[in-house]
Amino acid sequence: MANERYPADTTIDKSDFDKEHCQRILNDSTGDGYTSIYDAFSKAARKSLEDGNPKQAKIYWLLSDACSMMLSSDNKNEPFKPLAVFHDRRSAIADDFSAEDISFFSEIITEVTDIRLKARLADLAWLKASKKDLNNALVAIDAYRQIPLDTETWVRDGRECWYRALSLAAMLRAGAGNRIQEMERDIQQAFDSSKESDSYLALWLADLMANFGLGKSNAGDIAGKLEIIVEPSTVPISLRGSYYWRSGSVKQELKGHALTEFLLKKMGMTWDRMVAEKATLNDIDKETVELFKKEAVSAGRLPDISRLDTKELLKKLHLLTEDGLTNAAIVLFGKDPGAFYPNLYVKIGRFGLNMVDMRFQEVCEGNLFQLLRDVMEQLERKFLVKPIRFEGLRRIEELEYPVPAL
């Protein structure tokens, strides 16, 4: 791994691992899945090195790199992908860990109580160890399947974790014992308990069962529930990267131009003009609306909006229709747009001297006005260098990239 993070001759073993301190780091993380764990350990690693503790710094860098990787359900033999890839570098992948690193992971698995960290370490130990230890695979499966089956967790990293658990169990076959049957029971129970307010959770769980041949004995009940709780959609349904539309008894896959033509013909509008289901005026951030009104007036645009209330303004901007708030309204002015569109965020990272040395990472969330402000603040405060030059006695600091370019 990256020697710039700690002295090259730094060695570690199980006795150097402080499980209580590790748990405090995890407790202080944001609880936002693997991303928050990775970020928490990277900060702890830097502080440990500043405090003159290279062994602890190495341990936390290893744990940070292990948790930075993204699970991919598309490749059973190479399930981990780098968090970030650039033309000349990338973040960590499984092959970056040495045999000594993997051996260390194997030694501390029993000391770790956090289910995500335990699952990741056991999975890596099973995947990369020269001698396969079946127990590591079983520990990984058992940890992954403790991750809750709810909508919020699913869209964060729950889907990938459950897919990995089932993939491992399927590869082990009889070696997995009754784990596939137990996971089938848990998934079926979560499916049965899902409600309309859980968004597409029932559909996602049904898809999971279909992928692994589960739930066959309850196929009729599953189909019946999906028919009841999944309302007809005016847009194609996305399934594993493809879009489908059902006409009568025929299922059609739509791609490229055909998909575009379908959307335009079916809705007569662009995505931003579509109504955001279940969104109300309570989902609009009034502070952002007031900020927009002030900036619009100061810019000399829409000077007649200063006295409009939120509802009147949204109607004037065609963001509120008779059918409700549009997607654009939530993206521009929403209190929590991520609750409607989980992928609405900006992730910023800065690398060090090599491809696996990610020094900083931040995730900015919010509506577009908040994102614009937060991203610029993060870049200026944490990510970008301010070269210093002098004009006479006057000191001038400028960002390394011009603001208009950013």
Structural class: mainly alpha
Q: Which residue ranges are poorly predicted, with pLDDT under 50 across at least 5 consecutive positions? A: none
Number of discrete helical segments: 15
Helix content: 40-55%
Rounded to an integer in angstroms, the radius of gyration calculated over CA atoms is 25 Å
Strand order of the largest sheet: 3-4-5
End-to-end separation = 32 Å
Outline the biggest β-sheet: 3 strands, antiparallel
Count of strand segments: 11
Can you tell me about this structure?
The protein is mainly alpha-helical and 406 residues long. It has a domain at 232-268. Helices cover 47% and strands 11% of the residues. It contains 15 helices and eleven strands. The protein has helices at 19-28, 34-50, 54-68, 99-108, 115-128, 134-144, 151-172, 179-193, 201-211, 219-229, 256-267, 286-298, 310-316, 327-333, 368-383, and strands at 70-71, 80-81, 237-239, 242-247, 250-254, 320-321, 324-325, 345-351, 358-365, 388-391, 394-397. Strands 3-4-5 form a three-stranded antiparallel beta sheet. A two-stranded antiparallel ribbon has the order 1-2. The longest helix has 22 residues, at 151-172. The model has no long low-confidence stretch (mean pLDDT 86).
Write the layout of secondary structure elements.
Elements: H1 19-28, H2 34-50, H3 54-68, E1 70-71, E2 80-81, H4 99-108, H5 115-128, H6 134-144, H7 151-172, H8 179-193, H9 201-211, H10 219-229, E3 237-239, E4 242-247, E5 250-254, H11 256-267, H12 286-298, H13 310-316, E6 320-321, E7 324-325, H14 327-333, E8 345-351, E9 358-365, H15 368-383, E10 388-391, E11 394-397
Antiparallel strand pairs: 1-2, 3-4, 4-5, 6-7, 8-9, 10-11
